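Quarterly update from the structural biology core.
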Amino acid sequence: MPNTQISAIICTHNRDTYLGAAIDSLLAQDFVGEFEVVVVDNGSSDRTREVVEHRSHNPRLKYVFEPIIGLSVARNTGARVASSEILAYLDDDAEANSHWLEVLYSAYQDNPKLAIAGGKVTLLWPEGTQPPRWLSTGLSANLGAYDLGDSIVYIDNPGKTPRGLNYSIRRSFLEEIGGFDTHLGRVGTKLLSNEELQMTELALQRGMQVAYLPNALVAHNVAPERLKRSWFFNRGWWQGISECYREQLAGKAGLGQLQRGSERFVRGLYKTIQYFPDPAERFDKIVYAYGQIGYLNAAIQGLVFKSKKE
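Predicted structure, tokenized:
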């Protein structure tokens, strides 16, 4: 589309159940100006193409197939296909508030130093389902929940970076750093993450800003399989691996990782005992400790690989 001001991008992999609602929430945006919606089909084998084709009469909608599996790969493909300076990423199982694009676009227009922005995320539970007693506020973040309050916050701690499911970035910054790092980010069933955290670090190093915008609201569907404890253990394991990889990419590999991982593992076990009477906090700390095993496993593999190369 000519003179497109902002591009909304959905990267999707076998999520046809939720995808239609995600696309519809973008096509229905109350945006004063021109925008486009880009769907990157990341090697799906379900009805994804059919879901998009059902809406192909809308001229705002673009479809591209990316056969190389990986969220960061798909995000880079979406950026390449999109035509705007501002790129807004929505997960394929999320639904954006009708003012989502307007809030994001205005923030970039008002602040030339803004590199990354994202907003509040609420959770949509499956019909007839209540949050389990063992789910802490901290572990809710693994389901996508993100709330830093009702005021704009400029992020100076990368750990508080906006969630990837409700995320936007300035194209010029993305190109400057060479795109999303394909060593991080989900690859099929491997729940790698931390790519957004790394992006925030790179933005802050360059004197740019990262913002939390409470009015850029998105609701995230909680899939039934994510209400099992085993999913959180798996997520924690991959979170640990992701943190290890991120440190290695930042030049912090080596024996220090073994010390850091061991200290965090012991701290997790200690807090598990400390919070034993509270089922939610107890489970939170167990998952944290388990994640450190994933971190240590990746760190050891990194050291072995390094010694073989030498």
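The chain has ten helices and nine strands.
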